[in-house]
């Protein structure tokens, strides 16, 4: 298995990259290569041009200003995993990355590449949905910001135009001491999740839940936002019983089925992962208070 | 012709510089094996799952089947051939794997050792459970992993001793 022939471009600036992307026919962007390189090796993709982003300046950073956190699209997963800034502001990101691939793939894999590939089971996709991230893309007409709720259009199809590139992911951090939980079931450590869940909980002074975010990954082609459960959690006192009761209807959700995992099994996992993520989030928030 | 696009690259492999002109589609794994003729880096699945082709690029463990050789231009690559300190001496990782029968056919071993070089430098005292996660990206079809984990734990202890 060898990659098919292509012309190779390694631009140094974003402007150069956007120009190449806008003028070359059948071009593919190469980020960390942990999804595109296997697809090239197996010849699932046959690009005429490969535009390597690894030398483009200004695409790898983690920065914060107040509660706003900006992550450059080419920031390696390994750097996110070890970022003290993320551990403090967006701790669900390093928590989810513990499930993403392996040391060797996280050393190369990037957040922008993962979101652009948009595997339905990808942990970073699920987490970005739960955090209501905003995706910044650049194209010939300039830059635009896409709310994450509008980013996945369908199965492995991001809202990025063919002549656009993801440059940055922007987050609004939840309050300090918030609860976060990530749960997933995969057949082996490091595999893509069969079903995953990301939960965030902010508490009021009286110990009741103020705000909740709950998203399932892997169930459907795009992240499943559990808005009804989020609304029902507000004002409640957290307990295992409450989480189990509210998450039970997840077993009735639409789910994908494939040769290895039938839809019925994904539906079985949905409430289990949702309540585990919530329980973890509640446990972490409680530990932060005491 | 598209397939003929080539580039001149200069890659340091185990401390020696290799200047070659390569096809831009050549993977780093095939560059190491065919251009540099170091066949200790093994190619298993060629899609980033088995971990056999793991090498260190600028000190970081990566799948060499998922990197292009042109991306290694100007970088330092370390392979299994550069691990031992000399002709007659083994690296503590190699010695521990030998002592614990941490390999049978040996196909996966170079990738496992490359992974452990980076991992143990950062985590000198891992638990057994942590090691299992660290090695989850390296598949072995002979050993059942038990002896690999025992060897890795012992290697960690030997490396700690060597540092003390």
UniProtKB/TrEMBL annotation, chain A:
Which SMART domains does the record associate with it?
Answer: CO_deh_flav_C
Which terms in the Gene Ontology molecular function aspect does this entry carry? Answer: FAD binding; oxidoreductase activity
Which keywords, in A-to-Z order, does the entry hold? FAD, Flavoprotein, Oxidoreductase
Per its UniProt record, what InterPro entries does this chain match?
CO_DH_flav_C, CO_DH_flav_C_dom_sf, Diverse_Substr_Oxidored, FAD-bd_PCMH, FAD-bd_PCMH-like_sf, FAD-bd_PCMH_sub1, FAD-bd_PCMH_sub2, Mopterin_DH_FAD-bd
- So which domain of life are we looking at? Bacteria
Biological classification of the source? Bacteria, Pseudomonadati, Pseudomonadota, Alphaproteobacteria, Hyphomicrobiales
- Provide the FAD-binding PCMH-type domain boundaries: 1-176
Do you know which PANTHER family this protein is assigned to?
XANTHINE DEHYDROGENASE SUBUNIT C-RELATED
KW Flavoprotein (keyword) present: yes
**What protein name is recorded for this chain?**
Xanthine dehydrogenase family protein subunit M
Coiled coil ranges: none
Originating organism: Propylenella binzhouense
- Record's Pfam families? CO_deh_flav_C, FAD_binding_5
On whether Flavoprotein is a keyword of this UniProt record, the answer is: yes
TrEMBL record, chain B:
Which UniProt keywords are given for this protein, alphabetically ordered?
2Fe-2S, Iron, Iron-sulfur, Metal-binding, Oxidoreductase
Q: Name one Pfam family in it.
A: Fer2_2
- Which SUPFAM superfamilies does the entry mention? 2Fe-2S ferredoxin-like, CO dehydrogenase ISP C-domain like
Q: Where is the 2Fe-2S ferredoxin-type domain?
A: 7-83
InterPro entries reported in the protein's UniProt record: 2Fe-2S-bd, 2Fe-2S-bd_dom_sf, 2Fe-2S_ferredoxin-like_sf, 2Fe-2S_ferredoxin-type, 2Fe2S_fd_BS, Beta-grasp_dom_sf, Diverse_Oxidoreductases
Q: Which GO terms describe its molecular function?
A: 2 iron, 2 sulfur cluster binding; metal ion binding; oxidoreductase activity
Keyword Metal-binding (UniProt): yes
Q: This protein is called what?
A: (2Fe-2S)-binding protein
UniProt source species: Propylenella binzhouense
